[in-house]
């Protein structure tokens, strides 16, 4: 266990403020604070959001910063404002929806697979009980 009041710099895997890392989803993140009261993931911010906010100010409520189609990068030198756009979350949902990403036949098969999986799981739980 860590003792109370221990400095984060004493940890063997400590990263200084300003360090960069790539998230599990492939996005570039920068460490912004060492505040121990924050959950560790809150100590890191997405660099593409920082780039947008530096150029355009705060992101409006209900919006998000996304890469333009075909413009994704996790290289700091290539990450520029012209690769980004601020879109409503509803538009992001539409872009990532099963129904707009795939043809109707594939979307329907994915729905049926989910329904079948739920029934199988329900049956397995009943058998265990």
Task: Give the helix/strand layout.
Elements: E1 20-22, E2 28-31, E3 44-46, H1 47-56, E4 63-67, E5 84-88, H2 89-96, H3 98-101, H4 104-128
Antiparallel strand pairs: 1-2, 2-3, 4-5
Concise summary:
The chain is of the alpha+beta class and 129 residues long. The protein is 36% helix and 16% strand.
N-to-C CA distance = 38 Å
- Given the helix and strand composition, which structural class is it? alpha+beta
Strand order of the largest sheet: 1-2-3
Q: Return Rg in Å.
A: 21 Å
Structure write-up:
- The chain is α+β, with helices and mostly antiparallel strands and 129 residues long.
- 36% of the residues lie in helices and 16% in strands.
- It contains four helices and five strands.
- The mean pLDDT is 90.
Tag the structure with descriptive keywords.
single chain, 129 residues, alpha+beta, three-stranded antiparallel β-sheet, two-stranded antiparallel ribbon, 5 strands, flat
């Amino acid at each position: 266990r860590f003792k109370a009041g221990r400095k984060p710099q004493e940890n063997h895997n400590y990263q200084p403020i300003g360090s960069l890392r790539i998230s599990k989803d492939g996005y570039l993140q920068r460490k912004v604070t060492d505040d121990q009261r924050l959950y560790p993931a809150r100590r890191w911010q997405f660099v593409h959001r920082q780039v947008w906010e530096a150029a355009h100010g705060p992101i409006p409520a209900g919006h998000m910063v996304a890469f333009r189609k075909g413009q994704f990068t996790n290289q700091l030198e290539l990450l520029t404002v012209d690769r980004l756009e601020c879109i409503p979350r509803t538009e992001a949902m539409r872009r990532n929806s099963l129904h707009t990403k795939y043809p109707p036949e594939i979307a329907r098969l994915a729905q049926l697979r989910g329904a079948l999986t739920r029934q199988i799981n329900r049956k397995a739980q009943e058998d265990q009980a």
